[in-house]
Amino acid sequence: RDLRTPVIAGNWKMNNDRTAAKALLSDLAPLVKDAACTVITCVPFTDLETALAATAGTDIKVGAQNCHFEKSGAYTGEVSADMLAEMGVEYVVLGHSERRQYFGETDVTVNLRTKAALAAGLKPIVCVGEHLEDREQGVTAELVALQTKIALLDVTAEQLQNVIIAYEPVWAIGTGKTATAEQAGEVCGVIRATVASLYGKEAADKLVVQYGGSMNAGNADELLAQPDVDGGLIGGASLKADAFAQIVAAAS
Ligand code: PEP
After folding, report:
1. What number is the ipTM of this complex?
2. What are the structural domains of the chain?
3. How far is the CA of 94 from the centre of ligand 1 (A)?
4. Tell me: the pLDDT tens digits for 160-171?
């Protein structure tokens, strides 16, 4: 754990126009100043420029919520990793369960996007996690290990240093249902063990593995106390400056 700085990332999803983004970030910046963890807000594409300007000189880093795997071309509606990097964006969420559920994202396209993001110099936050049926059938560990392996296909050991993996049980996202600290810790441990089997223990010990799924100020302490939980990916609670700042404080 000493090898890892916790990372708290907000995922705004399709919320906040530029006016709201500016207001939220200016409220948040003083609340997370000098935090002992890395603080990221992942915003809609249309907010990126505003967010980059509003966070300049603060301790908040900016991420996008997706990128395409091709450098350019006939992909209407998509945004490339290079386009984000050129703007000064540092992070990108990939393979979020909402992308998988509503937009046809698969383990294979998550891998392509991960490689494209890394090649562009972005730091991907790669989401994995099981559905409720998977958990009920007892295949969570196997499934999450497989998602992790496919996401990291052809990612080099050097590139791995820029990867964050977020364990997000689908049944806990936006539902108010949180995994117990033990469940979160256990699956984050499976992810680390999977990465150790691919890249060695030393690399795995440095990997940041977040938990995501209805994390809030009330349950953050307990979740973050798990040795393999190095932070959180926060949806709903990232839309309020004070709620998000309390999670940042719990991780610091
Ligand atoms: C998410 O969108 O990644 C997420 C974890 O959402 P929520 O915190 O709202 O469950």
Report:
1. 0.97
2. 7-251 (3.20.20.70)
3. 14
4. 999 999 999 999
